[in-house]
Amino acid sequence: MPFGAIGVILSFYLHDIFWKPMPLSFFSTMGMVALTGVVVNSSLVLLVFVQRAREKGLEIKAAIMLAGRRRFRAVLLTAATTVMGLLPTAYGWGGLDHFVSPMALALSSGLTFATVVTLFTIPATLAVGHDVRWFIKRLFGIKNKEEGVIID
């Protein structure tokens, strides 16, 4: 959600400077709410793939790289088709609607920004989180389930 909100605010700001003023209205906020579901879905596609690869026995870094290779196209194409479908409504190609245009602009710009950021931050966060978890376990002498029983 924060990535989408940053993309929406940045887009409306740049839209006001270079194109024509577009108000950040109730409908654009509704677009931001709708954006949360799509952005979360992109993250879940990557996370579920990593989890399934880990269940099959892959190391975390190999699972993250495999998820990036296999799911990159699916996440990117889903976002691209949604953005391309919203552009005519956002910019009024074929007729401008002052109520729906801000919502379409919020959805398309937020989705573009959030997808790009998600494709980089989710794998990086997983890798860093795994390393931090490993460090904490090592620091306190906690063994993994595969290694045996946890001893105090």
TrEMBL record:
Gene3D superfamilies: Multidrug efflux transporter AcrB transmembrane domain. Pfam families: ACR_tran. Keywords: Membrane, Transmembrane, Transmembrane helix. InterPro entries: Acrflvin-R (IPR001036). The chain crosses the membrane at residues 26-50, 71-91, 103-128. GO terms for molecular function: xenobiotic transmembrane transporter activity. GO terms for cellular component: plasma membrane. This is Cobalt-zinc-cadmium resistance protein CzcA Cation efflux system protein CusA.
